[in-house]
Amino acid sequence: MPEPAPARGGGRHLPRQGLRHLPEAIALTTRLPASSVLFDLAPPPTKKRGRPRLKGARLGTPAELAATATFTTARVARYGRTDQVGIAEVRCLWYGSFHTQTVRVILIRDEDTTTGYDLALVTTDLATPAAALVTRYAWRWPIETTFAEARTLLGVGQARNRSENAVRRTISFGLYCYSITVVWYVLHGHHPSDAADHRAQAPWYTTKTDPSFADMLAKLRRVIIAARFLPVTPGQPTDAEIQAVHQAWAHAGLQHTA
Predict the structure, then answer these.
(1) In whole angstroms, what is the distance from residue 84 CA to residue 112 CA?
(2) Which of these, 86, 104, 85, lies nearest to 94 by C-alpha position?
(3) How buried is 217 (Cβ within 10 angstroms: 0-12 exposed, 13-18 middle, 19+ buried)?
């Protein structure tokens, strides 16, 4: 599984009103946009006239925080390996999105990075250790690749449905097909030479060690094709049957390598 390219900020802004009304049982951890402005926690009431302050002093953007933050070394499990990274965290307010709710900002710096940061996370989870939150955030990558493969290889989400039931069921059915394909491959379709065969066909792909979903889907298609054209009665297949099998087999192979 490829690792997503590290980012020094960026990300999409989340809908503010939804973030401010999350149930207490839900903790959100997401990437913090580079343009976000963070503030210190609100100071205690002064017992003077007027409304108490809702936020403290301006702390700045993630880059400004990283310039003065103290990073500690930690080992985190992410993307199928364990890395040694620098982590700095601060409790603060992301006032523009979470308003007065206390959040933690976690800055991650890779081992070969000397200044700034490589990834900034913001979380409403105030108890879980920072390294565990980095691992939890990395879990999103297999989920994103699953959605991408389901869309590109199975056409999930591409149907032009109009009725409410069709909209509700089509994507779910496509994801069920994705799961069934993986379960079938694990139980019945896997062969130790599958990844080696793929490397033989694409020798430049030297890092491939495990079958991808495209490999699983291509093998399932070929098994279905073979079962579909299996003769019911003994005898030689006709020329038309042979040609149909060759065309279907080639089509499955093209989809596999696309």
Answers:
(1) 10
(2) 104
(3) buried
